[in-house]
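To fix ideas, we now present one chain and its tokenised fold:
***
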Amino acid sequence: MATHKSALKRHRQSIERRLVNRERKSELKTAIKSVRSVKDKQTAEIELKKATALLDKLASKKVIHKNKAANQKSKLSHFVKKLS
């Protein structure tokens, strides 16, 4: 365990960030599931827009890697494009 005052603070901050990032990743998974669960194209496009915005936001904050965000957006847009 850390003994310096600054190291203790760093540890506290890392725990807080981990919890926040976990919540954000969970929110992202829910957004992706909401896109995939919709059967009509118009609703799927609306959900896709929300999920895309969330992916970009998390990638910019480095919660997820930018390439992972790009891959997820690509897969979701292909999914929505296939809907009739």
In short: Helices lie at 5-37, 41-60, 66-82. The chain has a mean pLDDT of 95. The first helix runs from residue 5 to 37.
